[in-house]
Automatic annotation (TrEMBL):
<feature type="binding site">
    <location>
        <begin position="277"/>
        <end position="280"/>
    </location>
    <ligand>
        <name>GTP</name>
    </ligand>
</feature>
<dbReference type="GO" id="GO:0005834">
    <property type="term" value="C:heterotrimeric G-protein complex"/>
</dbReference>
<feature type="binding site">
    <location>
        <position position="55"/>
    </location>
    <ligand>
        <name>Mg(2+)</name>
    </ligand>
</feature>
<keyword id="KW-0807">Transducer</keyword>
<keyword id="KW-0342">GTP-binding</keyword>
<dbReference type="InterPro" id="IPR027417">
    <property type="entry name" value="P-loop_NTPase"/>
</dbReference>
<dbReference type="Pfam" id="PF00503">
    <property type="entry name" value="G-alpha"/>
</dbReference>
<dbReference type="GO" id="GO:0007188">
    <property type="term" value="P:adenylate cyclase-modulating G protein-coupled receptor signaling pathway"/>
</dbReference>
<dbReference type="GO" id="GO:0046872">
    <property type="term" value="F:metal ion binding"/>
</dbReference>
<dbReference type="GO" id="GO:0005525">
    <property type="term" value="F:GTP binding"/>
</dbReference>
<feature type="binding site">
    <location>
        <position position="190"/>
    </location>
    <ligand>
        <name>Mg(2+)</name>
    </ligand>
</feature>
<dbReference type="GO" id="GO:0031683">
    <property type="term" value="F:G-protein beta/gamma-subunit complex binding"/>
</dbReference>
<dbReference type="InterPro" id="IPR001019">
    <property type="entry name" value="Gprotein_alpha_su"/>
</dbReference>
<dbReference type="InterPro" id="IPR011025">
    <property type="entry name" value="GproteinA_insert"/>
</dbReference>
<dbReference type="GO" id="GO:0001664">
    <property type="term" value="F:G protein-coupled receptor binding"/>
</dbReference>
<keyword id="KW-0479">Metal-binding</keyword>
<feature type="binding site">
    <location>
        <begin position="206"/>
        <end position="210"/>
    </location>
    <ligand>
        <name>GTP</name>
    </ligand>
</feature>
Amino acid sequence: MRRLSKLVGQLSISEEEEKPPQTLRQDVNPSSASSSINKHQRTIIFLGCGGSGKSSIMRAIHPIPEFLSLKLIDYMYENILNIPTFILGTDFGKELKKRKNQEFFENEFNHHSLMIYMAKTASIWDEEFAKKIYSMWWDPGFQKFVFERRSSFAYMDAVHYFIQQRNFKRIMRSGFHPCREDTFYCMIKTTGFVEISYRSGYVCVDSGGQRTERKKWPIHLQYEEGKVICFVVSLSEFDELCYEDDVTNRYEEGLSNWDTWYHNELVQKLPIYIIFNKMDVLERKVKNGIKFSDYVKSYDGDDNDPEAISEFIIQRYLEIDTFFNRVVKHFKISANNFDQCVNTINEIFHIDERYFGIHDFRRIVEHLLVGLKEMEQSRIQSSH
Ligand SMILES: Nc1nc2c(ncn2[C@@H]2O[C@H](COP(=O)(O)OP(=O)(O)OP(=O)(O)O)[C@@H](O)[C@H]2O)c(=O)[nH]1
Ligand SMILES: [Mg+2]
């Protein structure tokens, strides 16, 4: 039997809750941010929208120690319950009440009994409740309902892992110790910044990617020698809505966020890398028959070809960089492939060591190019 501290709502670790595990969150104030970076160290600042996989990449290269991973167990429970709680507590719940029970659940559930069970979880998660939740998640009617409305729910990637029978059974067992995969999939929205020392002299800084968190990004974007930016982009978010407003398509949000920060003058001073993440999730969605072109109307390629779709997305991002060619390199990965993450981060640090001497020279050339472009534009305008 487990007691949960908090069930409903978003999974950010906030100040009001118990002190978060040390390495999961670290707020940095503007004055201390740049001074915390040693002059001779190499630093990657991870930026990107919420859910793109920044923290997952950090966990892949720097596993959470066991004593901290135990603190994530409650969040795993929350990941499993978040969608049912959301469904029953919002207009979806009202919609369900109107529908005949059979249209929603094919098993023995009904809305009323589920509400009672959900209310019970506010304090206790026992064997009986775990069984109910498991069979609810695997009820074909419930699965269909969630699938149809998947664009409204965050947590899908985490839930997909936690409700698999072999994982669910382990998690429910008393004395459960999370393995590396469990902590990888556990979704906790990052607030503030999390700094890890990857190797001696090599630091990675994770940031929160939700809209409110992005306002804090400039804290870490002051120019420093040895600092680079790594944008993380999800390749699989095209059929999802932003958690922030439940309206904006996340693919659109991702592109416009990239466009905005690419042109930000702080970002312009730093070398940029892009990691296109969640290739495995994109492949799974394509396999499940979800059509990219239903969501991105400008795509006229093959909806059954994840490679073609990912290349299309990558080109949309890189075309914003056509003029300046500021993106040093881009990568396509699945963060659940830990070796791939380690190789990618090593490569960024390695390239960057070679690249450094010429970065300042590039910046001078870029300024000259901007000047030339503006002169050319004003010449064209005056000749009309
Ligand atoms: N299958 C799969 N899941 C992934 C991958 N990358 C991330 N995830 C899952 O996606 C969810 C969100 O990932 P996070 O790393 O928390 O996203 P984030 O960018 O840190 O989000 P914020 O902290 O809100 O800015 C987690 O449940 C991860 O386990 C991936 O490549 N494949
Ligand atoms: Mg995060």
